[in-house]
Design brief:
alpha+beta; globular; 5 strands; three-stranded antiparallel beta sheet; two-stranded antiparallel ribbon; single chain
Length: about 100
């Protein structure tokens, strides 16, 4: 999340955080955009089809525990840049693999 925020001057788009359970972070993408990328292991794409993606979204204000806005509720038509998110995740995966090799 830090790198994505850095590349977008602190405005990565709508991001939701889960405060319990598996503690996922959800990045809201424009419909169909997640299907355009091969996501790294551990990333879960929530969809019923390539055209119908869904996510539980907290209300803009009030208690919606365990979900909360990480970067604030979005404006109409605002999404996380799927290509940038994919690039950041792939770079992080490469860095993690390199770090693991260095420690062996």
């Amino acid at each position: 999340m830090h790198h994505l925020s850095t590349f977008t001057d602190g405005h990565p788009g709508p991001v939701v955080r889960e405060g319990s359970g598996r503690r996922w972070t959800y990045f809201l993408l424009a419909p169909g955009e997640s299907a355009e990328h091969d996501w790294p292991p551990g990333v879960r794409r929530f969809s019923r089809s390539t055209q119908d993606e869904y996510i539980g979204v907290p209300a803009p204000e009030g208690n919606t525990y365990p979900l909360s806005w990480r970067c604030g509720a979005p404006e109409v038509g605002e999404f996380v840049d799927a290509e940038l998110l994919h690039g950041v995740l792939m770079a992080q995966l490469t860095t993690d693999v390199d770090d693991e090799r260095d420690h062996q």
